[in-house]
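BUG: 3D viewer hangs when loading the predicted structure for this chain

Environment: internal workstation, default settings.
Expected: structure renders.
Actual: progress bar stalls at 90%.

Input used:
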Amino acid sequence: MTDWDHQKSLELYSVDRWSAGFFSVNECGHVVVQPRGERGPTIDLLGLVKDLEQRGLRTPLLVRFSDILASCVEGLSDVFRCAIDEYEYQGCYRGVYPIKVNQQRHVVEEIVQFGGQAGVGLEVGSRPELLIALAILETPGALMVCNGFKDRAYVETALLAQRLGRTPLIVVDRINDLELIIKTSRELGIRPHVGLRARLSTQGTGRWVESSGRQAKFGLSPAEIVQAVERLRGEDMLGCLELLHFHIGSQITAIRAHKEALREISRIYVGLYTLGAHGLKLLDVGGGLGVDYDGSKTDFHSSANYSAQEYANDVVSAIQVACDEADVPHPDIVSESGRAMVAHHSVLIFDVIGADQMLTGCRPSPAADDEHRVLQDLAEVRTGVDGENLQEAYHDAVQLRDEATSLFALGYLDLPGRAKADHLFLHCCEEILRIVRTLDVVPEDLARLERDLADTYFGNFSLFQSAPDHWAIKQLFPVMPIHRLDEEPTRRAILADLTCDSDGRMDRFIDRDDIKQVLELHSYDNRPYYLGVFLVGAYQEILGDLHNLFGDTDAVHVRLDDEGGGYQVEHVVEGDEVSEVLSYVQYDRGTLVERVRRTIERALRRGDISLEESALLRKRYEQGLHEYTYLSRDD
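Structure tokens produced before the viewer hung:
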């Protein structure tokens, strides 16, 4: 037995670095959730999964922790409140949540609920999102920031929302929006709350750097901003201009980009006020507040080299300095930091359904004297591996493996000989890798051995449905077992999903210093083994793809029970049945059943199937249409 314990697992998986205090590992080796921080109550994640399975829920399973959501929503308001107090800023903070980040109803409703005291509003980027906000956002005075492409119906709905006591700010994202707003507001007799979106020269950093700067999709140039001011003045509507907005991209990794953008937008704000736009009272700094997914606190695209507090301090101080220099009143500050609000609160749990183990530890049988020379040479290389000849042994083994492949293709080596050559080669590499893992400096051509010899663990999930950003933009998410963390993980693996696409795998993982291409896991022995993908609350659900028709997973909202202790399950959202997913691609359940029935009848008449077999097939077919799209353990 090794002296491995849960503390070593905490360090191995860098939990303290990315968890923001919401997750840890207990002495039993289970991941625990700390929804209110390190000093608050805990939930054993494995125990929760077992409890949910007994309630009829299935893996893969998305667990949303409402208290984490509350902590993040309140925490964002707190850092701005702290910055405002420190700098004696004269405006206030008015956060809004961009619905596009996670549009699930229960998530949006909880954000409105948890942000009610701080007046958190909603940002919408389309007419459907506007309809959500109009129905859900009842917080008095909370902002409804209306971005995106607009038609008359969009603008009419936003304007009429004022009659219901809402505060919709219709943002001019393109100069043509302004004429539509003016015309529609005149016809309805409703003076609008207008915002202008500035297209900054400053670019963001990270994965979305190309979406910002002078070539950004949305925003007005300085010339168009001046044009908009004069157009509003000419219509006696300059007093309707209340907000200035900018956005330099999502997940900004470097605080420098924020600082530069804030200097630029602050000068534009002051310039607008100087031009006579004295109704201006809101400066919307957009989104971009980064989440440290890998715990490195760097400007790598899955991290951020600053904290939320530093970001808030820079926002407040930059606006204050520019306004004070020009003797302009401090505006209320609006931010759209949706990722920071929701990323931490969701965890995807899935079970491992099988494993292909590259290195078994089984020694190959010695090469006999009458076996082909290439096998004898490989066996000799294998027995001669030591710390002094690692590279030479590896080069020799590769050359002999390739020679064996050629001999097999030309017919000079039979199939059992080819199989033995592969086994000998793998065992050579296993011996080399065992020594390589002890080295401080690893030669470049040996560094890839870890990845080349990794196991493949097959997970009961779809990468495209539940973590599409990992596939699409190489986003890193923390991944780790949720139990057995008091045992040393002796295997190195990549993760493959259920889809038949070769891209359906996770082969990039967070590390303390860099990206690692394998994940340390425990030996798979066919017993339930659960892994968690953490920080998947932002974008992953709504961007999910029906690859191979794997649908939405079961989802559940869990909240701490302050009265009875423990936790309570608040909302359960059942994942897609097969028939639901088929309907998304225009297949009718009844039509499919009838076509299969007719096919079975024809087979019966031909005598190709028995009555018992036909009944079983029909039963399985109809059952299959009502089942979860993922695999079950009912075998």
